[in-house]
What does this fold into?
Amino acid sequence: MTQINRPATPDDIPRLVDLLMLDAQERHAEDAILWKMADDAPTQIEKALTFALTAEQQPFRQFWHVADDGGQITGVIHAMMLPVPPIYAGPFGEPGLILPDSFVAANAASGTVDDLLVAAEDALHEAGARIKLASYVAGEAWRTAFEASGYEPLTLYLSRSDLGDQGMPVGVRQATEDDIPGIVECSAENRQVLFDIDPFWEIHPDADPRFSVWMTRSLTLRDRDMMVQGESEDLQGYIIAQPASRLHFPPAHNITGTGVIDDFYHSELANPVALNHGGEGASALLRAAEAAFVNRGIGAAFVVCPAGWASKIELLESAGYETAMVWSIKR
It folds into this structure.
């Protein structure tokens, strides 16, 4: 019987739990701290699948497709429609994202990865995605398939799982409400660098007021640290150390000890090709975020960085960060 690709059903859940456990174990083998396994990982996977395949009200559209070889499930791919952050224009609408919890068994038929990729892309296209993104952590087969299909690196997720205990650097302080205008100004510079690197990050006309509202609210959230460098009237940079979210971590993983740094900008990073002044100020901000994580009992951190921002990558790699996940784009 010829293998087919079809949407997953609730009846597939037991086999999918087995496959996604193998998938999670591959990530765990890459970095046992960053991709820590949940004590009840099979249960968490089952809960997530049951919700995805049965709940009528979903926070976003998602798609699960399986490779069915005569009734045996040999592979699975997971995709979703990714909401556009409010500070970006999103002229092409919501992009489609293929998530890292996609897996093909060792005994799957040749070409299963490619066939599942086509099935996911078709589902995303039918849902209206004009741009497609793909993410991967482990599995050379997925990286090869994405590259062969025309995906190119867009965003790197660099990680470090030995944050140490070096304390808060001099010259970095917690942000206050008086710093919000300066943070918004720094963010505007950051967004311009992003857009210059890739027009995918087209800036929304109302980005500044929207970001100001979000930063004001963020000051009230107790699960994160917002830090700045410089006086309120002349900020050199800002960084936000916040907890990880399920967008980047499949349900098999325990994320309570993992932090994420997405909002991070310093004037020394304004040139995406080369660091200004050796990056000392930007490095101090990064160390401050690491210290904040350590104070909260967080031992691993992700830093989100565009693949084309060479100076920022240089700064992170010199601080001991390595690429742990890649998001790629197909236009």
